[in-house]
């Protein structure tokens, strides 16, 4: 009997060393030792699946690839950026594409990701570099048809249609490109790991292999990524940490305007945007977006007001339009496009309570021009002015802009980069600007800007009185503006 105890204890000890199976979220890659219905990282339901036993490895020292050297002895020229041939992309990247850098471009289907990267590939090939364009979604003939339409046929631009990682690496060995474009990363798979192409495990393995190849060869790599229904990049969040640059390509289906912004950039800023015009003949850079978000009227119209918004560090002139109509319904309608609905509701309450504009029995329709999204509080004053202009049926002078945040007490608050906004307004020919007074301990001093008269106001009522938009005031003549010193 006593001889059996050691074997039983040994069995118990051996079973205690068995590792439980691991579970991984298919959305973000979060792992757990037990199954849960909801991911503990991204809070997605039903996305946690078993992936096998948790590995138990013990790392040991091994040979190094290259000896460590002082940081001052590292050659920085190898990581200097090179122009992509597309100025708006270079602006967003902070100078251009870095050799060995991996860039991930994400956007909704049909926004123009493939067209943009094909243009980048063609421009790079025109400069004498060798470019390899790997398409996993289209055949080489289909890419050729789009290249003919966009005038992107170049001798040094090579096309390949591959969906296997080993085949893609083989194409890299054969062509030895200076720039690699993969469209898209979710369509490439490998037999070395489990899962289907586009899954968490596959995407992580394929991206890791391409990143290693890019770093070893100094190969600039551009990857196209899909997005989910909520607009985030498909695949594990670790994908965004692996790559060097993450770009978001945005645009409304009803508009030709496309905006490119950086979400992550190890080599440059993340507060720049690029503007493009997507048409039948391809994608064209928009170096000056001054007239994209405003409408041209032969004479000033009631219910409109201009403001200057910031997209990253780029000032853009935008127009807010409002229409106010009486209603007999018990619940007036509030329709908003391009503005924050909650902020518009706040502005309506401020106009009614602090200024005395009767809006309780009126339908209000407010929108921006050209699909601009004005989510910043800096557009509050322009929205309030446009609503008051629609109520009084008096036009705001076409040469005036309104910039400022409106508080619940009706006061006007300063907004960031006010001097940069005013400089842009003056460059576009505007002669008057209504802005808040800076009451901070160290107020921002607005320098004298040639051709621009800046009027500072303390509250929204004073700004509306300045523009003769308070009910009972006198209407302005087109082009006139009464300048009042606060």
Structural account:
- This protein has 486 residues and is α/β, with parallel strands linked by helices.
- It has three domains: 20-52; 80-285, Rossmann fold, CATH 3.40.50.300; 304-466, Ribosomal Protein S5, domain 2 (2-Layer Sandwich).
- 25% of the residues lie in helices and 24% in strands.
- The chain contains eleven helices and 21 strands.
- The strands form five sheets. The protein has a nine-stranded mixed β-sheet, sandwiched between helices. The protein has a four-stranded mixed β-sheet with strand order 13-14-16-15.
- α8 (341-355) packs across α9 (380-392).
- The termini are far apart.
- Mean pLDDT is 85; it is low at 1-18 and 472-486.
């Amino acid at each position: 009997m006593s001889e059996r105890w050691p074997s039983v204890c040994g069995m118990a000890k051996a079973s205690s060393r068995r590792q439980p199976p691991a579970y991984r979220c298919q959305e973000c890659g979060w792992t757990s030792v037990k199954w849960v219905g909801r991911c503990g990282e991204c809070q997605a339901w039903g996305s946690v699946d078993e992936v096998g036993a948790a590995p138990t490895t013990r790392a040991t020292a091994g040979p190094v690839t290259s000896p460590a050297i002082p940081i001052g002895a590292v050659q920085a020229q190898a990581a200097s950026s090179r122009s992509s041939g597309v100025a708006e992309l270079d602006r967003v990247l902070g100078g251009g594409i870095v050799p060995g850098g991996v860039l991930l471009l994400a956007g909704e289907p049909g926004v123009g990701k493939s067209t943009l990267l094909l243009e980048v590939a063609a421009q790079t090939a025109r400069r004498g570099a060798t470019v390899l364009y790997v398409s996993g979604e289209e055949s080489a003939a289909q890419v050729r048809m789009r290249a003919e339409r966009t005038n992107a046929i170049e001798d040094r631009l090579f096309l390949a249609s591959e969906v296997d990682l080993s085949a893609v690496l083989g194409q890299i060995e054969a062509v030895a490109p200076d720039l690699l474009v993969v469209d898209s990363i979710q369509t490439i798979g490998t037999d070395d790991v489990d899962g289907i192409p586009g899954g968490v495990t596959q995407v992580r393995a394929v991206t890791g292999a391409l990143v290693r190849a890019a770093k070893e060869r100094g190969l600039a790599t551009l990857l196209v990524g899909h997005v989910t229904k909520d607009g985030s990049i498909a695949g594990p969040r670790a994908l965004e940490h692996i790559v060097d640059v993450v770009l978001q390509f945005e645009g409304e289906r009803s508009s030709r305007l496309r905006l490119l912004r950086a979400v992550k950039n190890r080599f440059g800023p993340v507060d720049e945007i690029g503007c493009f015009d997507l048409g039948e003949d391809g994608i064209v850079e928009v170096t000056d977006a001054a007239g994209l978000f405003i409408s041209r009227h032969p004479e000033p119209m009631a219910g409109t007001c201009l403001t200057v918004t910031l997209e990253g560090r780029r000032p853009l002139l935008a127009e807010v339009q409002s229409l106010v109509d009486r209603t007999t319904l018990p619940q007036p309608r509030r329709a908003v496009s391009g503005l924050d609905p909650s902020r518009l509701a706040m502005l309506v309450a401020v106009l009614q309570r602090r200024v005395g504009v009767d809006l309780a029995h009126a339908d209000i329709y407010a929108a921006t021009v050209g699909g601009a999204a004005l989510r910043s509080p800096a557009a509050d004053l322009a929205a309030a002015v446009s609503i008051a202009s629609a109520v009084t049926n008096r036009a705001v002078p076409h040469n005036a802009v309104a910039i400022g945040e409106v508080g619940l007490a009706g006061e006007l608050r300063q907004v960031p980069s006010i001097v940069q906004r005013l400089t842009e307004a003056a460059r576009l020919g505007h002669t008057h600007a209504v802005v808040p007074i800076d009451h901070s301990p160290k107020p921002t001093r607005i320098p004298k800007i040639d051709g621009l008269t800046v009027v500072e106001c303390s509250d929204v009522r004073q700004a509306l009185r300045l523009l003769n938009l308070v009910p009972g005031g006198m209407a302005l003549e087109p082009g006139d503006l009464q300048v009042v010193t606060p």
